[in-house]
Amino acid sequence: MLKGKRVLVTGGAGFIGSHLCEAIAVYKPRSLAVVDNMFLGKEINLKDAKRLYPGLKLYKNSVSDYARMKHIISVNDVDVIFNLAVIPLPASLVKPRMAFEENVNTVLALCELARQGYFKTLIHCSTSETYGTAQYVPMDEKHPYVPSTPYAASKVAADQLCLSYAKTYGIDLSILRPFNNYGPRQNEGLYAGIIPLVVKKVLQRKPVDIYGDGKQTRDYIFVKDTVRSFIEIYKTKSCRNRIINIASGTEITINNLVKLMLDIMQVKGIKVGHVSPRPADVRRHCASIGLAKELIGFKPTVCFEDGLKMTIKWYIETIRKERI
């Protein structure tokens, strides 16, 4: 259990990480710290986590900095690290070397510190992008790796590095592999995802552009379901040395996603067009979540349309506040 544990969340000022901090705070850990290089993270994202856990500490550092991480982990006497620190996919298309090196070196630093006994357990966040376009559906954990971007390649390398340390040195490790997360606080600025982008375009009464033909599919999972699975995987010893998909198990095309969003927002007259496909974009994603069901009894609790309504409402309220 997390109660009484000393917990560190890397990338904790980001989208999923900040929600995870809130979920962890409820368990009353002995200490809670965040390390984030603020590439996409925002201190405001931790507002609710700090309300729930006033003693939360934030370190604005790169997790790939081994010496700095050694100091932070030692000072906080950390028991468990949830690693969500990452340079995201869109950034890797612009700065491939930086993204690859940062993502791999982040995991290397943490694995080395775990090997040397500076903390006990590493729960590492992977990505469905490691699979590339579906070779078959539903995509289980045995699906081949076909990374199509520098980001995806860096995450494959990071995952395999984690497993190699678990097998060679016996570090206590689990890997959670989420598919497409959505929800409040998903990055809406540079490198934003399609959901916040569509909301912004609608509020600005501008046309919505879809990359490619829009027939590519994604398997969306609400962020609260994902963070719940992080905690359950940590609590469950049978999850060690394993990669576990976390997803909804259903797919939706980007065209249908945009249509659903426009229906929810009750807007008319917004033009929807298509632009050149994004480089190396995956064509189809639809996960098997059988292993997660078996090991932690996982099933999504938020249906996609309800989650989308909550997400859109949050973005509209946030954007309006920024304008005041």
Short recap of the structure:
With 324 residues, the chain is α/β, with parallel strands linked by helices. It has helices at residues 15-25, 47-52, 66-76, 89-94, 96-115, 150-169, 194-203, 223-235, 254-265, 290-296, 304-323; strands at residues 6-10, 31-35, 57-59, 80-83, 121-125, 172-178, 180-182, 208-211, 217-218, 220-222, 243-246, 252-253, 272-275.
Secondary-structure topology with pairs:
Blueprint: E1 6-10, H1 15-25, E2 31-35, H2 47-52, E3 57-59, H3 66-76, E4 80-83, H4 89-94, H5 96-115, E5 121-125, H6 150-169, E6 172-178, E7 180-182, H7 194-203, E8 208-211, E9 217-218, E10 220-222, H8 223-235, E11 243-246, E12 252-253, H9 254-265, E13 272-275, H10 290-296, H11 304-323
Parallel strand pairs: 1-2, 1-4, 2-3, 4-5, 5-6, 6-11, 7-10, 8-13
Antiparallel strand pairs: 9-12
Provide a descriptive summary of the structure in words:
This protein has helices at residues 15-25, 47-52, 66-76, 89-94, 96-115, 150-169, 194-203, 223-235, 254-265, 290-296, 304-323, and strands spanning 6-10, 31-35, 57-59, 80-83, 121-125, 172-178, 180-182, 208-211, 217-218, 220-222, 243-246, 252-253, 272-275. The termini are far apart. It has 11 helices and 13 strands. The longest helix has 20 residues, at 96-115. A 7-stranded parallel β-sheet has the order 3-2-1-4-5-6-11, with helices on both faces. It has a two-stranded parallel ribbon with strand order 7-10. Strands 8-13 form a two-stranded parallel sheet. Helix content is 42%, strand content 16%. The relative contact order is 0.13. It has a domain at 6-183 and 222-247: Rossmann fold (3-Layer(aba) Sandwich), CATH 3.40.50.720. The chain is α/β, with parallel strands linked by helices and 324 residues long.
